Amino acid sequence: MDPIFERVSIRRYTDEPVTDEQVERLLRAAMAAPTAKDQRPWEFYVVTDETTRSALAKATPWSTPAGRAPLVIVPCARTRETACPDLVQTDLAICAESVMLEATQLGLGSVIMAVSPDPERMANVTAALGLPGGLEPFCLLAIGNPAESRAQQDRYDETRVHRI
What stretches of 37-79 show up as alpha helix (H) in DSSP? Predict the structure, then answer.
């Protein structure tokens, strides 16, 4: 089955680490995402350090899974030298979805936790990672071997489709 129809948000993980090869596949998927004018406005922080993951788990009201996952990928937006700054959020959203779909393909679980555009969340993540100026955290992607499972719900709703 296509990972689009298998992906679910997983918030609990085993202690088994995500391999370096899996991390590279996830990052390759992220960087394969399309972007406006091919601007690729991203940098990625790959977090496996327990102390930093614990800080990220406290960065937002909903980021507890970051402390449970053996891996957190933080896509960050470059705020300088982008061709289409008004489309950076769209580019990073597509990138994050690509990571989650590849995680599913690899048999890993993942969940996205919003950071941007909330100033407090962004400041908390910036502090936890020690981000330099010119980078803004977009989201947290907690990733690991799932310690829970469930089937994806069929969310197709014909009443929301308007044919012209």
Answer: 50-57, 65-68
